[in-house]
Amino acid sequence: MPKIVQITHANQLQPYTGSEIYQGFDVGSLSAHEVDYHVVLVDENNIPHGRCSLWWQAVPGYTDESLGIIGHFYSDSADTTACLLENACNVLRQADCSLAVGPMDGNTWRSYRFISDRGDETSFFLEVNNFDAWPKEFMANGFTEMASYSSALTEDLTIKDARLTDVYKKLDAQGITVRSLDMDKFEAELSRIYELSIASFQDNFLYTPVDRDSFLAMYVKVKAYVQADLTLLAEHEGKLVGYLFGIPDLLQKQRGEDIDTFIIKTVAVDPKYRGGGLGGLLVGEAQSRASAMGYKRAIHALMYDANKSLNISSHYAKIIRRYSLYCQRL
After folding, report:
1. Which one of 17, 180, 195, 258 has the lowest number of neighbouring Cβ atoms within 10 Å?
2. Residue 97 and residue 92: Cα distance in Å, rounded?
3. DSSP state, 122?
4. What value does the mean pLDDT take over residues 82-105?
């Protein structure tokens, strides 16, 4: 029978880190992500076959539930998944959690969700990835879909949303302007983006606050890949009131292809400025600028299906991928 090893400190992982299940996994994440427990499934020869991390202290709020989070997930078989999830849920019950949620690396600022319907398109830069069996294995072990998400593809960046003509005029009359990110002031720009993100995302599903330093650290990692004209800032009287973060699909280059696709990763609008079409304007402007730069396609990435951003995307794009987050009553 396989055994479960529960680890609370990264240095205890040393006997297992040379195995396949830890390839590409940063052991330092256990500390950086403030993991409460890390679980490893090993066989009689001490060879690991699966892993996951558990959180129950610093977790998102959700109605009156006490959430237990399952993330950092890897499994090499259906039996491994069953054993991992059974033990993970038992640990979370002992921590007085009422609902297990996963996969999520602690909170929604980090990697979360499984691809549940891959479709025909290849993977894109900064997209989550997983074995196709894992969603089915979660459901086979008592988990159900808690939330759904999608990514959509625009194959013609010259398409215009006719409604935006009036939106441009209205926002221009209000004094709202749109400009490219200033790469010479990258960290200062990120700091302003952080402030708007906190205000814009606070009502999002499973939102968790993040401190400024952690936010900046996430975006500084991709600075080398950022193109200024694909990240747009909307300002009113010197105040940032909206932004769109876009980035080239660098996985195309890794596959030996020309990069003809950019990814719309995040769109945020100050709550006081919602309802006036600013989000749609940013998307339309980004696609227009990308077309002028030689891009042919845009991916509207990882949209929560209950968000209004899906309505913006529907004017340009068709859904190419679906994702799911799962839960189980404990």
Report:
1. 258
2. 5
3. P
4. 97
